[in-house]
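Quarterly update from the structural biology core.
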Amino acid sequence: MATEEQHGTLPLPGLNPAPKMLIVAAPFYRNIADGLLAGATAVLDRASAAHEVIEVPGALEIPVAIRLAAESGAWEGFVALGCVIRGETTHYETVCNDSSRGLMLLGVQNRIAVGNGILTCETMAQAEARADPEEMDKGGGAAEAALHLVALKRRFRGLPGRGEAVPDDADILLAAQAAQPRTA
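Predicted structure, tokenized:
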């Protein structure tokens, strides 16, 4: 069973217009994927973000699918959902490391806003606790992270030296500015 630790959280950023988000889920463990998806969609609904869901076979395919989808320009941010549970071979390390690195490279090298909700667990019980929206809600956390990155991307897009401007009617409320909305 997971231990209960208190972690700091940020309020959801206020985004106007609401972003369009893509959730990429790997249903290898269907019950885990469904819990992650429930948490992520609840957060995106609370933020009034439009969202779609696609599924891929496993965690290794998630970064590739996000990269392919990002090239279309149809989504502002992405939520990666999946689960890897340790087995008897070293395949666990390969899948954990490569899927995580793939997502990180999408953000760092390609400036794609991605929330990482790929669980890497020792046991099914750990995965169940992390996927459950009523317990650790890691799917919701991944959606929150993606929304915060979208907000930052919008904020920085309008800075001098960038070719794109934030629309005049776009209200961006960052967590640090929760008391005062900032219109960029």
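The first helix runs from residue 30 to 46.
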